[in-house]
Amino acid sequence: MTESIYLDNNATTPLDSAVLAAMQDCMRHCYGNPSSKHHVGAAARERLIAARIQVAALLGCAPGEVVFTSGATESNHMAIMGALAIDPAKRHIVSSAVEHPSTLLLLGHLAAQDVEVTLLPVDGEGRIDLDRLASVIRADTALVSLMWANNETGVLFPIAEAAAIAKSNGVIFHTDAVQVVGKIPVDVEEVPVDLLSLSGHKLHAAKGVGALYIRKGLRLPPLFFGNQERKRRGGTENLIGIVGLGVAAALAARAIAQVGPGIGELRDVFERGLLERMPQTWINGASAPRVPGTSNLRFAATDAEIVLDGLDKAGVCASSGSACTAGGTEPSHVLVAMGQTADMALASVRFSFSRFNTVAEVERLLELLPGIVGPRIDGATQKVGG
Ligand code: PMP
């Protein structure tokens, strides 16, 4: 098999070699418990502090506002459960129909108990309606939780405006920012969210580490009780993972600041080339603002599994929707919420790029695709999404 071309970076990213080196160094030389008083503990504590500063710098917040977690699933749970625990009289949550399963499954669980959940619908391009958001907030709304970028389509929600609406109603605002952190500038001073989830393995750090930004002054009750993380998240810190996340955050900040073509350019070269060669391709969410690096498409009526299998045999990794639901034959809840039929959703494929991908890889993919997708089916679909 030829060298693989990895285009499933929204599922997970390869480790950056500098992240790996920092983690290896930590594994070898820094075994202390950051809570220990002796010098070995102090050395570990120093690395924990350094990583917190690096993550805070990427978000534009104070280090004390960063709580390390086991990943975004935990961060999302901590945000939602914590917001509900602040005021037991508030039992209503607003979110959207296209959130990640780590949010939607928790909300489903809560809805089966005593919590009322309002899921905002999206239009055909995956966008929410801000007037509708404003109209569903109530006196007993504990939280508005909206993802910043969709992991399947890359469609961006207007988080600054949504956070402002929540704030003007006195409601806590959380965003699952997993798919934007490290890809576009994120500054919690400019975008006034109260809580923000991120995940290490989406920005070239390890799996099993993430963070929750908690705005200063918001006293969010913990999910796990203990003295670590200033009593906000108990449990001895995953120092190796955290050190890697810190380095990954610093590298991401540098990559975002760099001039020149980034992953958005790769996505654009890919989509332009694809539409030239295969004009019947439909790009999901193409008319909405999208995060750079995500391309979710439907090739006429060809089943996604056939395309993905052909690509895999040719050495290319892509996916159908979210890795967290991949493997199943269920149509994507995101595409269905965008008004697509189950058949249309099952024909959609996601390519997601990282800073390690190259134009040469995109060109190779463009050469491969027509042969894998097969002959065009006349009159099957529209041109470009929108
Ligand atoms: N939210 C989004 C938008 C994601 O893409 C993911 C990862 N698929 C998660 C949450 C969960 O992150 P983690 O794997 O760190 O639990």
UniProtKB/TrEMBL annotation:
EC number per UniProt: 2.8.1.7
Reaction equations catalysed: (sulfur carrier)-H + L-cysteine = (sulfur carrier)-SH + L-alanine
InterPro entries membership: Aminotrans_V_dom, Aminotrans_V_PyrdxlP_BS, Cysteine_dSase, PyrdxlP-dep_Trfase, PyrdxlP-dep_Trfase_major, PyrdxlP-dep_Trfase_small
Molecular function via GO: cysteine desulfurase activity; iron-sulfur cluster binding; metal ion binding; transaminase activity
Co-factor(s): pyridoxal 5'-phosphate
One family name in Pfam for this protein: Aminotran_5
Residue ranges occupied by any Aminotransferase class V domain in the UniProt entry: 5-365
Keyword field: Aminotransferase, Iron, Iron-sulfur, Metal-binding, Pyridoxal phosphate, Transferase
Family: Belongs to the class-V pyridoxal-phosphate-dependent aminotransferase family. NifS/IscS subfamily.
Protein name in the entry: cysteine desulfurase
Origin species: uncultured bacterium DX-1A-14
